Amino acid sequence: MRQKLFFTGLIVMFVFSAIAHFAHLDMTLQFAVSAVAIVFAAGFLGQATESVAHYAGQRLGGFLNATFGNAAELIIAFFLVKEGLFDMVKASITGSIIGNLLLVLGLSLLAGGLKFKQQHFNQQLAQHNSTLMLLAVIGLFVPAIFVGAEHFTMEKDHFLSLSVAVILILAYVLWLLFSMVTHKQMLADSEMSADHGEAPAWSKGRSVLMLVVATVMVAFISEWLVHTLDTFTTRFGLSELFVGAFIIAIVGNAAEHSAAVLLALRNKIGAAVEIAVGSSLQIALFVAPVLIIASALMGKTMDIIFTPIELTAIAVSVFIAKSVSGDGQTNWYEGALLLMVYCILGIAFYLV
Question: Pick from 9, 24, 128, 213: CA 20 to 30 A from residue 180's CA?
Answer without folding.
Answer: 213
